[in-house]
Predict the 3D structure of the following.
Amino acid sequence: MLVDVRPELSVVVPMFNEEDVLPLFVERLRPVLDEMGVAYEVVCVDDGSADATAVLLQRYRRDWDQLRVVRLRANSGHQAAISAGLARARGDWMVTIDADLQDPPEVIAEMLETGKREHVDVIYGVRTDRSTDTRFKRTTAEGFYKVMNKLGAQGAMNAGDFRMMSRATVDAVLALPEQNRVLRLAVPTLGFPSSEVGYKREQRAAGESKYPLSKMLKLTLDSITGVSHAPLRFATWFGLAGFVIAFAVMLFAIISKLSGHSITGWASTIVIISVFGAFQLLCLGILGEYVGRMYTSLQARPTHYIAYDSLETSEANREF
Ligand code: UDP
Ligand code: MG
């Protein structure tokens, strides 16, 4: 029987095609949670997986009462999957963790202890050691956090989405009107009392990364445009610099004309046209990102649709 009272802890796990790692994950997570001695639920958000993830989850649910499955109708992305899970989780504390065992489940106990001891609302899991990540991942991640901090984002360097939050924090984050919110940036902006727990980022236990370059780029663009409009000012500075250069070129052209060298200059013309063309396109692109963000938020379309929540199906249907 799934406990009807609100559990103390909800573990929210986004999963997209994780059939390879799921058995290892369950095997490692369950003893950790059972030993913590608190009432818990595990909310697995199946982000529209096309492999055996859904079937496996149903199977595990048979002998793990605290396991709850929320399935999204279509693949909606890591951030949307986490938000979906948080919106449905019932715990006083909620922790989000990846399914691939890169975030060690053992740290959850430490997070809960820290939260209670220090009376804070958010406990960030901070990667103190990422030596097992690929060089590409590490460099791009480092660049990401540096740029974000420069743009004024608060929050710890190297804090991903492994974090524990109080219910008040989750309610506050979910109430933000933003579409495509990037949780690792939205949570620190609240400024709620927080603490950190360090951990070693492990290697993905099985399967492939579900974060191709295209998804990484989307996350980066959502992060930048969600945090700051500094890039728009950047475009203004570009425009001003272009104006100064244009003025110098104009002077040069007049002087050439007056001194009788007006035929030459084909190369410089081409260069100037292409440089300015590039500037303009870049500025238009930056502008477009923000207009696009406004457009998306005006449309206010849901970021995901729930197909199924095991908590809401009757006991009679449980066996499928
Ligand atoms: N994930 C998801 N939806 C997606 C992509 C990823 O729910 O569209 C989940 C994935 O199953 C995993 C977590 O998000 O639990 C992090 O993804 P992954 O480990 O592939 O990313 P990486 O660690 O390589 O950045
Ligand atoms: Mg991973």
